[in-house]
Structures are given as C-alpha cells and as structure tokens.
Amino acid sequence: MMRTDWRDHDWQLIHTAPQSPTLHMALDDVLTHEVGAGRRAPTLRIWEWATPAVVIGRFQSLRNEVDAEAVQRHGIQVVRRISGGGAMFIEPGNTITYSIYAPLSLITGMSFQEAYAFMDTWVIEALGELGIQAWYQPLNDITSAGGKIAGAAQAHRGGAVLHHVTMAYDIDTTKMLDVLRIGREKLSDKGTTSAAKRVDPLRSQTGLPREAVIEKMIDTFRRLHQLHDDVLQPGELARAETLAREKFSSPAWLADVV
C-alpha cells in the first residue's frame, strides 16, 4: 500500500451537540468502518459529553480499573471502548476529546510509536500557538513541563485507523482518584498534588475557555490539512444508536475483561 499524506485526503469535521458515552463509543466504531469502506471521507470528530463517564480500554479489567461503589455514588457511567490504552475520567466541560478516522494508507510502514507521533503533530502545533510547549511522550501521551496533557489510543479496523485523544482541560483529581483504582495506586505515596500535576489542565496553562482551545485546534488542523464542515449522516447515526443500545450498553461488553 502506498503511503498517503494528510493533504491527499478531503478531511471532514464533525462537531455536534453533547452525546451519551455509549453513543460516543458506537460512533467511533461506525465511523472507523465507514472510512475504511470508502463510504466516508477521512474525518476529525470533536466530542461533546452529555454526562460524566469513565472510559476503559478494550483490554482493561473492569474490576481492576474502576471502583464500582464510587462511580455509583457519583452518578458516573462506565463504558468500554474499541481501542486499547488506559482508563479516562470524563466530566462534561473538563476534557477535550477528539477522534481521527483515517485510511491506513496515512500510516503505512510506520511503527506504532511513529504512527502516534505522526497523528498528534497538528495538535502539538496548536498547543504551541496557545503558548504551551508540548511534546509527544511515547507511547501514547502528550505532555509539557507542567505535566501530562493528553493520552491517545488507536485501533485498526477494516482498512482504517482510529486515533482518539482525551486532553485534560480542568480535571477534578480528587473525584478521579475516587473512581479510578489504578490512578489511586500509582499516586498513593505522592498525594493529590502529584495527581494534579499528572493530568495538568489546559485551563491553567492557557488561561482560555475550553471552547477557545477547541477553536484553535480546529483552525490549526484546517490550516495544515484543510477541513470542511460536515454532519453525521442519518444512516451513520442510526447504526451508532443501535450499536450503543445493543453492544456498548450491554453488561457483557462492559465486563468482557473482568
């Protein structure tokens, strides 16, 4: 397969109203397949969250990662995504999450590390324009002198690559440590101040509203790679809603790795 470049593709932008955690999981599944099948042009999707969530990686143990009592107490939904990687704690307005759905030709011949770095270059440039000197930290983090900013995950499906990233805008680290076991264990001997440093919020580093950071990201992608505004097609949304209901809301999928 011949490697392609960003500008070889007609990139589309999807940025819709807030959606449920299960629908976000399903949209990643559906849109990756659509791009792989050639029915959808390569797409950048900016997520908006309707409710709080913990998103665990495809191969993570539910029991090991999540404090079931704590998520119930805080009213947080737990969902499992189709990509690997670690658990993410989400509250509406406190993170910036995006997905890139691209043909595999964009990363042909690259190692996993090269592919992660390549897919994140544009957002590191956007952060630089906001005054944050950020860099790619193998295997799947974006970090700065102030601490970790974002974590990425990838999945290959039917001729396409899904690359999605969650960036910390203003994380409630106390609540995060209450619901995520793994974060608690890693940081138990360092205290919450270290936790705040590990997921250093974009708000403190930019002083900008979340919407302004997203606008800069979109503008940067548009300038570098070109980008046209788009919407979810009715068929895509219908398939995603069915998947959200039948697969991503099911106890069997969530507990697939107990």
- Which residue ranges are poorly predicted, with pLDDT under 50 across at least 5 consecutive positions? 188-198
The class by helix and strand makeup works out as: alpha/beta
Beta-strand portion reads 15-25%
CATH class: Alpha Beta
Strand order of the largest sheet: 7-8-9-10-6-2-1-11
Q: What's the total count of β strands?
A: 11
How far the N terminus sits from the C terminus, by CA atoms, comes to 38 Å
Q: Return the string of H and E elements.
A: EHEEHHEEEHEEEEHHHHHEHH
Please state the average pLDDT score. Answer: 92
Helix content: 40-55%
Morphology: globular
Second CATH tier, the architecture: 2-Layer Sandwich
Could you give me the name of the CATH homologous superfamily? Bira Bifunctional Protein, Domain 2
Number of helices: 11
CATH topology: BirA Bifunctional Protein, domain 2
The major sheet is characterized as: 8 strands, mixed
Overall tally of domains: 1
Quaternary organisation of the protein chains = single chain
Q: What Rg, in angstroms, do the CA atoms define?
A: 17 Å
